[in-house]
Amino acid sequence: MADWLTATVVENKQWNDRLHSLRLDVDYPTFKAGQFTRLALEIEGELVSRPFSLVNSPDTRPLDFYFIEVLDGLLSTRLAKLKAGDSILVAPKAAGLMTLDQLPEGKHLYLLSTGTGIGPFLSILNTQEVWQQFEKVVLVHAVRYQNELTYQDNIDAIKQTRAEQFIYVPFVSREQAPDALTGRIPQAVEDGRLEQRTGLKINAEDSQVMLCGNPEMVHETMDVLINTHGLKKHSRRDPGQISIEKYW
């Protein structure tokens, strides 16, 4: 296990029947907000690992990982059963390029997420850098049911401290929920409902967009942004406005 760090579970917070936040105590190296690492357990004699985004900001501890318990999932079902004091392995180095220092200049940052994809965006929102880099920051979180709109204490704290800069837009698709939009993110981008809600225009001059969550949402939203708003995918060789992370 020389290539792994051994962490101790501080808390396994259960939000509902499937969503968990696993908080870990470990002496972890420096990372950038928006990055991910790997968690691992030994299962039936084999080490099984999966990538998980770091939800906490780089200067806070414990490490925080937001995950969904997948039915018959080899690792997630065991993560869901961990208790305070249990041990788990963590990869010793975070990775990923969906970080603030990779983005070109822009006035407005859109963080568009589904489900547990909100995790890396919470890490970014809890840094000072994002508020210095952008005039407005929009967090979109799309879920099926209202009880999947998690981390509300954290989001409310950001609303209070960054009231002039921060816009939070929840989506709930399978029931009515106060202040939440209905439907899916790609359609709301295409039909203008997201712009109407935020009061901001999505365009290539002012906007930077980060996408994280369900791959179908990511690809559909990227297509809409390219075809209807004139944005393009970002890379270091060819700067653009749309950034995504591939670790599925």
From TrEMBL:
Q: Is the NADP keyword given for this protein?
A: yes
Root EC class = oxidoreductase
Question: Could you tell me the Gene Ontology terms of the biological process aspect for this record?
Answer: cellular response to oxidative stress; heme catabolic process
Q: Which Pfam families does this entry report, sorted A to Z?
A: NAD_binding_1
- Which GO molecular function annotations are given, in alphabetical order? ferredoxin-NADP+ reductase activity; nucleotide binding
The protein's matches in InterPro entries, at most eight in alphabetical order, are given as: FAD-bd_FR_type, FNR_bac, FNR_nucleotide-bd, FNR_type-1, OxRdtase_FAD/NAD-bd, Riboflavin_synthase-like_b-brl
Keywords for this protein: FAD, Flavoprotein, NADP, Nucleotide-binding, Oxidoreductase
Q: Which residue numbers delimit the FAD-binding FR-type domain? A: 2-101
**Catalyzed chemical reaction(s):** 2 reduced [2Fe-2S]-[ferredoxin] + NADP(+) + H(+) = 2 oxidized [2Fe-2S]-[ferredoxin] + NADPH
Under the heading CDD domains, the entry gives: FNR1
- Its EC number(s): 1.18.1.2
| Required cofactor names | FAD
State the Gene3D superfamilies in the record.
Answer: Nucleotide-binding domain of ferredoxin-NADP reductase (FNR) module, Translation factors
Tell me which domain of life the UniProt entry assigns to the organism this sequence originates from. Answer: Bacteria
**Family, as annotated:** Belongs to the ferredoxin--NADP reductase type 1 family.
| PANTHER family (alphabetical) | FLAVODOXIN_FERREDOXIN--NADP REDUCTASE (PTHR47878:SF1), OXIDOREDUCTASE FAD/NAD(P)-BINDING DOMAIN PROTEIN (PTHR47878)
> What is the name of this protein?
ferredoxin--NADP(+) reductase
